[in-house]
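User: Hi! I'm a student and our assignment asks us to look at how structure tokens line up with a sequence. Could you show me two examples?

Assistant: Happy to help. In each example below, the sequence comes first and the structure tokens follow. Example one:
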Amino acid sequence: MMTMLEGSAAEAGSLDAGHGGAAEGSAASASDLLSGLDRDSRSWIDANGIGGESTQEILSGLVTKSREMESLIGRSVRLPGEDATDEDVAGFYDRVTERLRPQDPSGYEYSLPEGMPEDMPYDADFVDAWRQFSHEMKLPSQVSSKAHDWFMQNAAKAVEAQWQQSQREYDDKLRAASGTLEENWGRAGSETFEANQEYFHKAVNALGGEDLMQELQGAGLVDEFDQIAAPHLVMALSRIGRDHLSEDHMVTGGAGGKNPFADDSKNWGEQNAIIRDDPQLARNLIRAAGKSPQTYKL
């Protein structure tokens, strides 16, 4: 027969067994909380460091991660939809590029790309205008810099191509001019050719000197190597040098420095010879004497 003390002990043992079972059940629920999830979900939980030995720890981790994601969504930029207005698109772009561009135009910095020609012109006014445009368009610094480099590289190619084309055209012009001169002066390097060149320089020196020569070179009519691109002009100056500025044909007189058409040094024989051999010289001398060439039927 069981005594009262034994009954109490048995009851106590039964209660302990009950509590032990409840504890084991609670532990099983914590370990099996995620057992029903698919593999991808469990991998996501593991990758985000959510876990624990109890249900409370796991739930706390899930709540924390959920709040973090909610915060990120609140700060995220939503892509404009197909029905977005211009204002919506502008606002989206402004928000996306806000941290990628400087506060004012002076914050954009550029430099010449590598491989640019040393004599490539760099227009400071254009660069300043590009800075202003980039700022107005809210271009990120990197985008503005890349566009600047692309423009400079292509501008250099265009300048080089234009220079080569100009050089080819100038070379063709020199060859054509050389042909014209040789037709009128004889072969280059011949005595006649060099004499006409001397007359040309004599005229330039008398009519304008170094200033006139610089203007002829600046206009591309004669270059620094005495290559001639305007043969008819040079031939005209050569004739002036020959007919009016050489020692034996001065405008102020013929032989002896006298004008045979002037009243105080009139010489009929010399007049007739000049009219016959060089009508243009005769006209100039007649005008220098204060008379009209028509009087001499010129």
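Example two works the same way, sequence first and then tokens:
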Amino acid sequence: MSARAQVMRPEARRRAVTASAQREARSWKEQFESISASLDPRMRSGVGLAAKLEELRHRIETLATKARGLAHHSGEGWKRARVDYLRARNEVSTTWRTLLGLLEREAAPVR
């Protein structure tokens, strides 16, 4: 947590964290759209890769929903919503790394 965030009033801190979460969710979505658009259609249709792309798309949508939901809570409800958001962010990150691993294996030359 930054020094500035530590001295903010609770409501200002919640607004700042919420705005940051929403920006982060948009960034994940943009990255997903970029990588998805750049994939060769034959790669995208691979069974494992297609399923992982769909899973990642779903997880990013969930993350965006959780980020938007932060704006509608305060107090303990906001803290629980933030924990839900952080869990969703972790799931997106894990799925993203798995997808990148699949892409690396697909792109590796066959020996």
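Here is something you could point out in your write-up. The mean pLDDT is 86.
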